[in-house]
Design goal:
Blueprint (H helix, E strand, L loop, with lengths): L7 E3 L5 E6 L2 H7 L3 E5 L5 H25 L6 H26 L10 H12 L4 H11 L9 H29 L22 H15 L4 H18 L9 H11 L17 H6 L8 H8 L3
Antiparallel strand pairs: 1-2, 2-3
Length: 296
């Protein structure tokens, strides 16, 4: 009589089943401690043959999981990548702060407000694009459905929260060199140039890009459409009155608008308020919203 392998067992009804322990290093990823499958036979010889096939599959799974997670499976390797990303983001914002001055706004009350400010005013990539960009820079291929994607993304968000707090504190320290505490700061007197409307500024900007030959006709049409939507949402207000609240409101409205709003016969002749009242079922994609925000 031949010996039955240890990964073959029987239940109380005499039916054989395959059972094998998952290596401890892979238990968290797979969410279980063992693999157990019924072989649906009470014949010992058939059970051995079927169980050997399951054993080959299990060995293949364990081996490939080990290779797949080699670069990011440990906290230490992910932490180093996050530390490098923190430094990378800090260098971008530090350069922008030196060029544009410190962050100051009474309207910034939380991380989301600050993140919007850094994206709109200081050139930081939209939040949804940063994590995939970091993976790409480090040549890490990580599918959205991979078991480590959520974990690593949450760790990245934690790093971002620390980054935002540190940047805000750093900016306020830099501000002390510009505005002494309890001092009376005189605002500049508005001039005709500083009170031009958004539409006038957009026309001048577009004309300059065309003179430089920087835009193709397709790019011109696309950008003018985006700027026209901005004016339609925010109103043709003076440029010097635009603040962080306008940026936040603009983003919130974009998230509720349908795609191709400037082209669709159903929406193009309506005001923004009328379009929002219709409560479109299909709204702009995240990539379209980020593309629009990136133009300012």
């Amino acid at each position: 009589m031949f010996r039955v392998p240890s990964y073959i067992q029987t239940n109380q009804y005499g039916i054989y089943y395959f059972r094998i322990a998952i290596p401890q290093a892979l238990q968290v990823q797979l969410g279980k401690k063992e693999i157990k499958r019924s072989l649906r036979t009470s014949n010992r010889r058939s059970a051995v043959q079927l169980a050997r096939e399951w054993k080959v599959k299990a060995d293949w799974l364990f081996s490939n999981l080990d290779r797949e997670t080699m670069d990011i499976e440990t906290w230490a390797s992910r932490r180093k990548m996050l530390d490098d990303e923190y430094l990378y983001l800090t260098q971008i914002i530090d350069k922008a702060l030196n060029e544009k001055g410190p962050i100051y706004s009474p309207n910034i009350s939380n991380d989301e407000d600050l993140d919007t400010c850094l994206t709109v005013e200081y050139g930081l990539a939209p939040r949804s694009e940063r994590f995939p960009a970091m993976l790409k820079r480090n040549r890490v291929e990580l599918d959205n459905n991979h078991y480590l994607y959520k974990t690593f993304n949450e760790e990245y968000e934690g790093m971002c929260r620390k980054f935002l707090r540190d940047i805000y504190d750093y900016s306020h320290n830099k501000m002390s060199a510009y505005i002494p505490p309890q001092s009376s700061v005189k605002l500049p007197v508005a001039t005709e140039e500083s009170t031009i409307s958004i539409s006038v500024l957009v026309d001048e900007y577009c004309s300059e890009k065309l003179r430089e030959g920087a835009w193709t006709p397709k790019t011109e049409q696309e950008n003018k459409s985006i700027y026209a939507l901005l004016v339609k949402i925010a109103g043709d207000i003076p440029v010097n009155s635009v603040g962080y609240q306008h940026a936040r409101d603009y983003k919130k409205v974009l998230q509720q608008l349908p795609p191709n709003i400037n082209k669709s016969p159903l929406y193009c002749s309506k005001s923004i308020e009328q379009v929002l009242a219709l409560k479109p079922e299909q709204t702009m994609s995240v990539s379209s919203i980020n593309k629009g925000l990136g133009k300012y």
